[in-house]
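Example record for the data management plan.
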Amino acid sequence: MAIENGKGGEIGSSNKYSKFKAKMTGSLPVVLRVAILLATGGATLGMGLNKQSKTAVVAVVGTTPISQTFVAQFQDTPAFVYFVIANAIASFYNLLVLVLQPHLKGKAHNIWVLIFDMVVMTVVATGAAAAASIAELGKNGNQHARWNPICDNFGAFCCRGAIALAESFVGSLLLLILNVLSTVTLRKNVAAHD
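Corresponding structural encoding:
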């Protein structure tokens, strides 16, 4: 009788929606982790392989120009080194969680994964912030300290560094979203068992 009145279709439709919602909610953390892995991995490689050389004439002795090659590379700045290490840690951690995901079932594992996710998010965010402050200094210099900007001489180095910074900030934002999603899911699971 309910099927004849059209109510049966609504129940079936609601059931399909619930299954779809559950499937999407279950796969969203995996999708986020893959996106985080791509963002932080790209940031690691982008900054880790970032190097530019430039040869300039520094003096002229008689009629002979004396030139020197200047190199800009991430290893010259501790903030960039920390940036590369932070993003490499985040990439490795998320790859490890993706590989071990089928074995990480249960509340105890979920709590530890959530705690490590928060730590990794903090590490990535601080690495990106430290690198961004040095990048700003490289772009604009500091007139009070008489530090000249370098991006007018090493444009490709600064451009690749900016792309790596953007990837790292995206990875940090995705880690924040993953942490919020994991906290809400864990809270719902705890509330359901109470």
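Summary line stored alongside the record: The radius of gyration is 25 Å.
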